[in-house]
Design goal:
By secondary structure, this protein is an all-alpha fold. It folds into 2 domains: 105 residues, Rna Polymerase Sigma Factor, Chain: A (Orthogonal Bundle), CATH 1.10.1740; 73 residues, Winged helix-like DNA-binding domain superfamily/Winged helix DNA-binding domain (Arc Repressor Mutant, subunit A). It contains 9 helices and no strands. Helix 2 packs across helix 4 and helix 7 packs across helix 9. The longest helix is centred in the N-terminal third of the chain and has 20 residues.
Length: 182
């Protein structure tokens, strides 16, 4: 059985809630994804968090999750897009020359990508105030859930729930055409 067939079989088990199958996918792809993402974003902590976000999305949406390419292609495309999102957010603090050095392939800055970022910003702006505040502290300020909970005098579970809610609302706002970005 080749890797693609193995991935298809494992994803079917994941759809049924099989944690062992999910762990197998995670173990197979997490480290290679992190290495790939590190080519774009030279921050190990950020890379690991973004890679985890990809797997969290798959698990949370396992029952409705569909891939139109191979799992490997989906994961690497998601990783690339997460890196681009990260670099876009860093744009405010980096010079244009630094950003150009961070981007490996110039075609990544296409018009479609620019439009997507505008849509993402609109999606974030449409979140309820507290949800948006927590999401921005998590993504923009890079605070941990525990730090956010302490800062806002909330429980860690509330912070986790609000971040999950934000990701779902953003995903819904973007629609099916862009669901692989989150």
């Amino acid at each position: 059985m080749n890797q693609k067939e193995t991935d298809i079989a494992l994803m079917e088990l994941v759809r049924q809630g099989d944690k062992t199958a999910f762990k197998s996918l995670f173990d197979t792809y997490f480290t290679p994804l992190c290495r790939f993402m590190y080519l774009y974003v030279h921050d190990k902590t950020s890379v690991e968090e973004q890679a985890l976000d990809i797997f969290i999305f798959i698990w949370e949406n396992k029952e409705t999750f569909k891939i139109h390419t191979s799992l490997k292609s989906y994961l690497y495309q998601s990783a690339r897009n997460k890196c681009l999102n990260y670099l876009r957010r860093q744009k405010e603090t980096l010079s244009l020359e630094q950003i150009e050095n961070e981007i490996i392939d110039t075609d990544l800055m296409s018009l479609e990508t620019d439009e997507l970022y505008k849509l993402i910003e609109e999606a974030i702006d449409s979140l309820p105030f507290k949800c948006k505040e927590i999401f921005q502290l998590s993504r923009n300020e890079r605070l941990t859930n525990k730090e956010i909970a302490h800062h806002l005098n909330l429980s860690v579970k509330t912070v986790e729930a609000q971040i999950t809610k934000a990701l779902k609302k953003i995903n819904k706002f973007l629609g099916d055409a862009y669901n692989y970005f989150w």
